[in-house]
Every structure is written in structure tokens, then in C-alpha cells.
Specification:
This protein is of the alpha+beta class. Helices cover 21% and strands 27% of the residues.
């Protein structure tokens, strides 16, 4: 029998370093408590050795409280002379938001965007375009208000991640509350992202619970389907067997759930 694949352990590069304070040591131990269940998406270590950036998928999140975000980012900073380290960490519901956090903390953009693809692939150009928007967050237009990860850990139902943001762009003034809906197919091969537009957060919550109409899609801005999105479509809609992958339907009915509370969940 072929042994199951086990991903490599995260490389923190802390040999010979100690936490700068006892509190930092305790916090780092708390964040990495289940790191034997972390799957590294990418790691970038600066040439001078002072910074490390990691994007990790936390397989233990499915046993945490419902709605827990499954992606963990770490930015480790080292004092080379004192041989000490500090760090910052955050949980994120989707990969582009995790990449944005790392880039905003100094990770080279090409390193964050060039991470290897694990798991499902984006199904179409719309998904690629919306992920680009979340990753770049131009002008800090998106403020994340809430998120909910619905992962039943079953091959009978796919994974759904809902991220509610407030969009400060003038073009979104009439419907500034945007619900980014990521839906992964039950076979875990592909996923789609769609952007719903709502006049209030309460409207978005009502839609999530009732699901009695299609997601009210936000209009695409002029020039949205640029060359990068077109290239992503050509790259992502062809499966490994050479067959085109059709976009997944938007928001099939799911079991009604209480509307999530307004909260942010982060680690340190």
C-alpha cells in the first residue's frame, strides 16, 4: 500500500534564536500548537535572514468552533545581532486575503503570488479577477467585516466561504456591502468566487439565511477582464485531463444557518 502523502513541516528558521520576550514565546507556542497539521502553501525568507513570510493551511480548523478561518499567515522578524525573534500572525478565510496581508507586511508580491497551487483550482476568469482584487485591495477599498467558513469535511457537499466586506469605491456607493462567495465543488477539483452587492449588511445576512433568490451579482467594472484574467481563464479552465471545466453554479441551496455575528478573528 502506498503511504499517504504528508506535507513538509513549516520552516520557521528559528534554530539558534529565542523569543524576544516571554509573552512572544507563549504567543508563538499558541499559534503553532497544531503545526503538525499545517500545510505550507508557500514560504519566503529574505536574503538577509531578518524576515520570513509563511502562508499555511490549518487542517485542524475543522475541529475548531464553527466558521473558523482555515488559513494562517506568519511574519517572523529576527534580530540577527541579539539572536531573538518577534512575529505577527493572522487567520484568513481565503487565500487572496492572506496574500494581501503578507504583501502589506513587506513580502515581495511576486513571492506571495507565485505560491504553488495546492488543492482546488480557480474555475474561470471571473474567479481569477475577483481574487486579484482581494489580493491587491487597491486603495484599501475593502474592509473585511465578517467571514464564515462552511466546511462539512464531506465528499457529499462542497466547501463554502463567505467574506463580507464594505467597499469604499465610489462606483459601489449604492451597494457598498459586498459578499464574496467562494464555492468549492464536492470533488475538491475547482472553485468559483462571485461578488454579491447589497445595500446593507443586514440584506447580505438575510440572503445568506434565506437563499430564495440568486446572489445579486455586482457589476463588473469597465476593463475588468484584462489580459491577466484572460490568461488565468486559459490556464485554469483546462483540467489535467485536457477537458474544459465549466463554472460551478452560484450558491446552490444549503442548510439555513443563523446570520454570523460581526466579528474579526485573529491571532495576535
Amino acid at each position: 500500500m502506498t503511504p499517504a502523502y504528508e506535507p513538509p513541516a513549516p520552516d520557521y528558521r528559528l534554530d539558534g534564536f529565542q523569543a524576544a520576550t516571554a509573552q512572544i514565546e507563549d504567543d508563538f507556542a499558541s499559534v503553532t500548537l497544531s503545526d503538525d497539521l499545517f500545510v505550507p502553501f508557500f514560504e519566503h525568507h529574505s536574503a538577509h535572514g531578518r524576515d520570513s513570510y509563511l502562508l499555511l493551511y490549518d487542517r485542524s480548523a475543522i475541529w475548531d468552533i464553527p466558521r473558523t478561518a482555515e488559513y494562517v499567515t506568519l511574519h517572523i522578524t529576527r534580530d540577527i545581532e541579539q539572536r531573538t525573534f518577534d512575529f505577527a500572525s493572522e487567520r484568513h478565510p481565503v487565500v487572496p486575503l492572506a496574500q494581501h496581508w503578507l504583501i502589506s507586511r513587506g513580502c515581495p508580491q511576486e513571492a506571495a503570488e507565485g505560491s504553488p497551487h495546492h488543492g482546488p483550482r480557480p474555475a474561470d476568469a471571473v474567479t481569477a479577477r475577483l481574487e486579484d482584487l482581494l489580493r491587491s485591495n487597491p486603495g484599501n477599498r475593502y474592509e473585511v467585516l465578517d467571514h464564515y467558513t462552511d466546511n462539512p469535511c464531506s465528499f457529499d457537499v462542497g466547501v463554502e466561504v463567505r467574506t463580507l466586506v464594505c467597499d469604499s469605491h465610489p462606483d459601489s456607493a449604492d451597494a457598498p456591502y459586498r459578499l464574496f462567495l467562494e464555492e468549492t465543488t464536492k470533488d475538491m477539483h475547482t472553485y468559483t468566487v462571485r461578488e454579491g452587492a447589497f445595500a446593507s449588511a443586514e440584506e447580505a445576512d438575510t440572503w445568506v439565511v434565506e437563499r430564495d433568490s440568486p446572489l445579486p451579482l455586482a457589476p463588473a467594472s469597465p476593463g475588468a477582464f484584462d489580459r491577466r484574467a484572460a490568461a488565468a481563464r486559459a490556464r485554469s479552465t483546462i483540467g489535467g485531463n485536457g477537458l474544459a471545466v465549466a463554472p460551478a453554479p452560484v450558491s446552490p441551496p444549503r442548510s439555513a444557518e443563523p446570520a454570523p455575528t460581526r466579528s474579526r478573528r485573529s491571532t495576535r
